[in-house]
Each structure stands twice: as C-alpha cells, then as structure tokens.
Amino acid sequence: MKRLVFLYLLYTGGIALLHAMPIAPQALTDSIHATLKTYDLPEITVRSSKIKRNADRFIMQVTPSSGKNGIELLKEAPGVWLSDKGISINGASGAKVYINGQEVRLEGELLHFRLQSLQSADIQRIEILPFSGAEKDANAQGGAVYILLRKPKQKGWQGHFSLMSTTGHSAQQYQPNGSWHAHWDKWDWYASASITWKPEDASDWNEDRIYRQTGKQFQSTGARKQTSDYETFRSGIIFSPDTLNTFGLEVECFRHSSDNPSHSRDAISNRHETVYSHGNYHQKSDYDMTSVNFSYQHRLSHSCSTLKILADYTGKHAKGKNRYNILRQAGDYKKDTLYRSQTKADYRIINADVSWNSKSFQTGAKYTQTYTDNTSAYEGFRSGATWTPLPDFGYTRDYREQIAAWYAQYTFTRRKWTVKAGLRLEYTHTSNRENNVNQRYFDWFPHMDVSYAFDPLQHWMLAGQYGKYIERPAFAALNPNRTQTSDYSYQIGNPWLKPTYINRFSLTLIYKYRYTLTIGGNLHKNLIREFTKQDEANPDIAYVTYENHHRENHWFVAISAPWQPTGWLNLTANFIGSRQDIYMNPEEERQSHWLYFIRAQAECFLPWDLSLEMKYSGTSRLHSGNSEINPYHTADIRLQKKFNQGKWILTLGIDNLFDRSSGYACHTEDYERDIHIHTASQGRTWKIGIAWNFGKGKQAKKTEVEKGKFSQRNRLAD
Predict the structure, then answer these.
(1) Which end of the chain is more exposed for a tag (fewer CB within 10 A), N or C?
(2) What is the C-alpha separation between 332 and 426, in angstroms, rounded?
C-alpha cells in the first residue's frame, strides 16, 4: 500500500512539474528516461506529554486503554496526595472532587470507593486546580479535582465492566463494577453500580511506652480481623426538549457494613506489681445513604449565558453495636468487665442553588439546611445477669446548621495578562439543642488568580493565586462517641470544635505548560488536629480526640517535572518540600518541622501491547499535635496486556513491593507512646484484574445530571 501511494504521488507531482515547464511534455520524454524506485518509510509513533499546566490548573490526559481506576490515575497527578481522610494538593488537604462538573460530596473511605469505580475507559482527562474559585464553597480550601468523562454513543449505547481482585497475607478484596449509558433522540439514561467486598483484612499492632517515672513499664499488643461490604448504585435521566433547555433527575444509593472483632493484651507494671489486661472487642456498624438531585439549565439564545437551578436532598441513617469484654488480673486479683453500646445517627441535608454564568462573569446564591440527630447508650453487665445503664458514657445530640451564600466572579484578559477575581459571602447559623448553644457568624472569602505570559506561545508563564477558605469540622469529629481500642486507649469526638480559617497564596513559574516551580503558603487559624491526652480518672489510659490549634502555617515549594526521553518511556517526578510552623496555644513557643513528599513514576511501552509501570512514593516524618507519623516509603509495579484493540485489558501487579508498614509516636505529660501498625490491605498485595469495554452507535457528547456544588455531604464520612 505504501508503495502504491508513493508511486501515485510521484506521478502526479511529475505531471504538475511538466505542465509548469516552457517545453512540451513530449519533447521532455524524448530526451529523459526516468527509472522509478520505491522506498518503505518506517512507521513513526508520536506520544505527547499527558500532563500539561495552564494558568490555573494541571491538565492530565487519560489513555482509555491504560486499564487504571480513578484512584490510580490521581496518584499520577502532579501535587496530588491521597490518604484515608481525603485528597491534598501541594500539601493542602480538603480538595473537592467533581465528575463532569458534579461534586462528589463524599470523603474518606466513601470517596475512595467512588473513585475506584471509575475506569480509564470512562475518563477523558483530569484537571487539578490548586485553588478553588469563589464559585465553589468556601470550605473547598484544598483546591479542586475535575474528572471529565468520555463521550458516549449517540443513538446507541456503550458500557464498561471490570473486575479487580486484591490478595495478600490475611487480606482479600474483590471489586466488580459496571457502567452503562444510552441516548435516544431527546433522552439520555445512564447507570452505574459498584461493589467492594472485603471478606478479610487483618491488622496487628504493638505499643511500647517510656515513662518519665522510673521503674514503670507498659506494653500492649493487639489484632483485628475486619470484614466489610460497600455497595453503590447511581442512575439518572436527562431530557432536552430543545437546544436551550435541559432537565435532569438523578438518584444515588449507598450501603456500607463492617464487622470489626479485635482483641488486645496489655501489661503495666511498677516496682511492686504487674497488672495484666485481656480485652475482646466486637464493633459492628452499617449505614444507608440516599441522594436525589434535580437540575434545570436554560441557555439564552442571544448570548453565551446560562441559567442553572439545582436542588438536592441527602439522607443518611447509621447505626452501630459494640460489645466490650475486659479481664484484669494482678496476682490473686481478678475482675471481669462486660459492657455494650448502641449508637444511632440520622442526617438530612437539603440544598438549593441558583446561578447565572456568562463568558466572563458568574454570580449565584446557595442555601442549605443540615439536620443531625445522634444518640448513644452504654450499659454495663452486673453479676445478677442484668444490664445497667451507664449515663456518664452516653449522649444525645440534636444539631442544626443553616448556611446562606452569595458569590460573584469576573474574568478578563488584557494582552499578556489574565485576571480572575471573585468574592463569596456566607452567613452561618448553628444550634445544638442538647447544650442550648447557638452560633451566628458572617464571613467573606475573596479569591484572585493572575497570570502573565512572557511570550506569545506561552512557553514561559507566571501565575499567582490567593484565596481565603473555611473548614468546618466533620460530624464524626463532633460526636462524643467513645470507641475503645484496648483497655488503655480509646478515641472520642469533640462537640466544641471551631471551624478552621485558611489563607492560601502561591506563585508558580511555568515552562512549556508542564514544567512548574511553585512557592507559597497555607496559613491556618484554629486548625483541627488529632491530639493525644491522658484520661483524668486514670492517667495510664490514653485517648485521641480533636482540638483546635491556635495557628499553624505551612510554607512550601513544589516541583513537577514530566519527561519523555523516548517514544516508549514516560518519566514523571513530583516533589513537595514544606516547613511547618505550629503555635498550639497563643502562649506557647513556635514548633517548626521540615517535611517532604516525593512521587516518581516510570512507564514503559513494550511490544505486543504490553506496558510496564513502576512507582515510588515517599514521605518524611509528619507532625500533628503532640503526635508524629513515621516516614513511609512504598514501591509498586504493574504489568498490563491489551487484547482486541484495547477492548479487553488484563492487569497484574504488586503494591507495596517491600511490605512497608506504618507507625506513629505520641508525647504526653507522663510518657511517650511508640505504636507500630501493620494492616494487611496496606501491606504487600497482589492485584489481578480484567476490564471489558463494549458499545454500539455513533460518538456523541455525554450528559449527566448536574448537582449543586455545596459540600455539606462531605462531612457525613464516618
């Protein structure tokens, strides 16, 4: 085929040349005899960098046949760091996630499972915004992650199904998920379902204490074997009667259950005696959550303006049953204690959102009401075979919150400058009927993005950003529910937490859209941190709660350097260095720590549709309150094979290749705690998965119901 194309081009080009000459073609053929030769041109494969940087965001293109889920893709994004509690960008936690412009109002384990259900076959690109604009909620202090899905089929349907299994020593997880989208004339219907089943996830820990009092020793060991089940279903329908109006309705359902039996053995001794404790704990919890979302969008025919009306309702019902049995022994002394607790929690969130958007100006108003009703009852077992209430441990909480907001944002470009300036106003009213506490406060949150291009092609750019944000405490952190982990340790919430205010700013130098150097700061007031304390009744008992730090400032530098030395090799390196200044109380001196975060990745494209990927992640020692998290380094490796032009993808891999585990230390007035934890699902695990993409029809734009951007539901995470 290549030879025929070459001959044809040579022939047509020669005829054109002859007609342009002053002599006749016949005379030329009489004097020139040409010999034609053909050459095979080698195939050339061009791979562009999949990560680029614009004025206010990173843009990461996703290869549909990469066979990765949303969590794995976000781990490759510049400056993005994932943890059990959420997503941070350039060291700032609390980033919000949006899928096709719709906020995923989940966090923690719920957010993790939701992102896992997305596959590279569904995702077109991911955009990382280090700073959220004024149009987003003021508690989007950690920036934003936009996930834009691929276009489905027009007058047809498309689907995706995958199954991933994760196994390791004492760990099993299976995750089937599927999605489907169809389009008929003026109607679109989409649905997705995902199940994450963990039949086994064992963990063990040990704790040593160093007492400042000589002659006193403490040692504790424990183990847990967790099982859990998480299910999610999502379905929506879109009706577009004409090109100017769109109506949408979507329903999401979540169900989660977990069973956490555990045991601990503790020994505390002084010069005179040793007290042994053996505890058995059975903690079972489950919840159901349903969300209904309505949207209406009207595009003005005479301009590029759009009117949007969004409304949604979210309801969550959670319950837990805990049973604790502790046996204490010291010489001839023996005491057996048995008690139980039951918790119930109901959450209801109602939200309304009206906005008007044009090419350069945005404005809108939002209102939300949040209702939470929580109860917890404790009972102790008496020798007479009766359960006796323990009112000192139980609680009842009736919490109400109302937030009204208005915002405006304007964007303009002048020659080499681009400026986006916005202001958000919020009024908040909270009440706790149980404690007769009422709070009313009014806040304003300015935001600004400024970028300057040094050359017409924007190979060199400078971008500056500033924003003020708020972080309201999660409902789980407010609940004074006591969760026992051993006879000498437990965790409990703090209903008196204040919101955190953050001032963020940065300056970024950008080269060729994707090489960046960023310096900046995140200044926190009343930062919410976990804190370890000693129980007043028994100082040998340590508990973890939440407190507000007076001030905590993070000064950072971030570097992103993607590199493609050859067509078959992609290299990516991200580094964040930070200085952490902590002022726990106004009268205390500053505590300073140097931190670093590193992520490096190499992706090799091999023959026979094979690809090999290697990753490294590392963090320094981290500091929170009077606790420290040990340095943590992991390496992952993954091999993928594509079949039938990428419609089938087989994945094999090993995570945490060297089986690294985590640990932390706590500093209290009487002793130092050193705790080492090994969780099977976070240790060395083997992964095997298969994905199948199918469909029928022509390519068209994908539509989904748009949801309000209010993020109250993020706080529902347990």
Answers:
(1) N
(2) 63
Provide the 10 A C-beta neighbour count for residue 588. 11
CB-count burial class (<10 Å; 0-12, 13-18, 19+) for 31: exposed
The encoded tokens of residue 266 equal 């503790």
Residue range 255-263: average pLDDT? 91
Reported pTM = 0.75
| Residue bearing tokens 């719709």 | 102
Cα–Cα distance for residue pair 486/484, rounded to 1 Å:
6
Per-residue pLDDT tens over the stretch 637-694: 999 888 887 778 888 999 999 999 989 899 988 899 999 999 998 889 999 988 887 7
Tokens of residue 399, six digits: 């919490």
* Phi, psi (degrees; rounded to nearest 5) at 256: -140, 140
What pLDDT score does 29 carry? 35
Q: CA 396 to CA 373: how far, in whole Å?
A: 8
pLDDT tens-digit map of 152-208: 556 778 787 888 899 998 999 998 888 888 888 888 888 888 888 999 999 999 999
Distance (Å, rounded) from C-alpha 703 to C-alpha 150?
A: 10
Q: Using CA atoms, how far apart are residues 89 and 355, in angstroms rounded to an integer?
A: 27
In this prediction, residue 4 carries a pLDDT of 40
User: Of 698, 680, 662, whose CA–CA distance to 83 is shortest?
Assistant: 662
Contacts of range 616-619, beta carbons closer than 8 Å, 24 or more positions apart: 617/75, 619/595
State phi, psi for 706 to the nearest 5 degrees. -85, 140
H or E, element range at 639 = strand 632-643
pLDDT at residue 1 tops 50: no
